[in-house]
Amino acid sequence: MTALRTEEVDDLLTVLAELNDKDTIFALLEDLFTVREIRETSQRLSVARLLAEKTPYSTIEKKTGASATTIARVSKCLNKGTGGYAAALYVLWRAE
Fold this sequence. Notes:
The chain has 6 helices and no strands. The protein has helices spanning 7-18, 22-32, 35-52, 57-64, 68-80, 84-95.
């Protein structure tokens, strides 16, 4: 467990794990985060999907508007992170 994993974070995780309605989850995101934070977080997930599909960085930059730094950070997490992006991508691909 990292220093980030606090009781408050666990509360958030409990809430997110229990919500199963997209509109309710979106309402929570709107209350918790700024528009910019929601867009940036969503953008990172799009970048992860494109990286997993072996899309070149230059194409990802054009397609998503993400900076090379953001793409590199997502790539690092996707390849050497804790598995969060892989789990999220599995959910997305399963839903297609």
